[in-house]
Structure formats: structure tokens, C-alpha cells
Write the C-alpha cells for this entry.
Amino acid sequence: MGNCMACALTVTAWLALLAKMARGRDTFMFRPLLIALQFLTVLPVRINSVPDAEASGRSLLYYPLVGLFIGALLATVAWMLGDAPPLLGAAVLLAVWVAVTGALHLDGLADSADAWVGGLGDRDKTLAIMKDPRCGPMAIVTLVVILLIKFAALAQLLANDAWGLIVLVPVLGRTALVLLFLTTPYVRSQGLGSLLASNLPRSACTLSAATTLFAAIAFYGPKAWWLLTVVGGAFYVLRKLILRRIGGTTGDTAGALVELTETAAILSVALMY
């Protein structure tokens, strides 16, 4: 737990400093990371010019690192809560989790839920519903269920003083996103997702994902194996469903994948206790 806390504090401090530096300038070396931070979080990251296609594609390399920042932030908040009641602590952690991501992936999950039910198995109708900004009853029910599961899992981890494992959950969610873009065609011709899919450095992204998974095993041992098995199974099933319905992925289904793999991960961790 001590090592995990040190890692959490170090990553949080480093990325906070990087975000502060980014207000004044962004170098070629940091540019893809800054793009990833700007897109996946609400950090006040400023980029001096419109990101080019190559830098946007390379930003996928840093998605697991941004996940580590989110996980480290959650672990730091959990540590600061100290002996607060688990239910209260879980509510605070969940609020921070949603806030730091700007509810980006929850929005994708909501759109996907509406489209999956309203699309009635039809590809074109499913894609059309995803573009509708209105939120239907299935979206609301799905969001409530997912947030309730995360809340209950967080409360269980806090009650057993096992909050250190929270760090790994957002990391695996963003690593799943990298794997999705590596293995699944993007079905829309416009938008950020299309830009990422067209310009991602495949070899480097594969190495980034593999390094992240090996690091998880190195730091967490047997618990990581169980967690990776659950997340890998969730990824396989979800990707299969996406391919069967629309023949590839969209930004919304990518967001849904993050939320659902995170939920599977934190639920499996909570069930260990």
C-alpha cells in the first residue's frame, strides 16, 4: 500500500506540473500527451495550435498514462479521506471520478445504451440514434446502474482499506481503449475518433498496451492476473457485440467500452474482499 501511495502522489504531482507547464508552451515531445490529457480529463491544458493528425494519433500512446493519473488522483483522495465512513468516502470518490473525466465516457455509454435498444438490431438505425443528443430512458437506467455498481464497489474497498487497487482500474479502462482502436475498424468517416484511427502508430500503441499490462502484473502480482482475466473477457464480449451490430466502433461505443470495462474491473476487485 505504501508503494502504491508513493506512486499515486508522484504521478499526480508530475502531471499537475506538466499541465501547468503546458499553459505556457507545448513542445513536440509533450504534445501528444497534452492532447490526451486535454481530451480525457478536465485539466486546464492549453495547446498553442490546432493539433495535427500525427500528434493526435500518437496521443493514444498516452491513454494508459492518463488512466494512471486518474487512478492516482482517486487513490490520493481516498488516502486523504482517512477514517471517513466508507459510504461517504465512496460518494466523494465517485464524484471526483466523474468530474475529472468530464463524464466523457458516461456520455458515450448513455448514447450507446439508447442506440442498442432503439436500433432494434439495425446498423443504420443504431448509428443514427447514437448521434441524437437526447437522452432516453434506457440511457438513464444504464447510467444509474453503472454508477451504483461503482459506488458500492468503492465503498467495499474503502471499508477494507484496499483503496490502493483503485489505481489500476482507470489504467485498464484506457488501455482497453487503445486495444479497441488497434483491433477494430472505425465506422464513421469524420470526427476525432476517425482521426485517431487513421493516424495511430500501431507498433508503438501495441508496445504501450503490452508494457502497461506487464507493469500491472509486476506491481500487483496474482491480483492483477485475476483482474486482467476479467477485463480481457469483458473486452472480448463487448468488442464482439459492437462488431456484430455496427461492424466496427464509434466514439460512443469506445466510451461505453471504457465505462463497462472499468465497472467489470472495480467489481471484480471489490469481490476479492
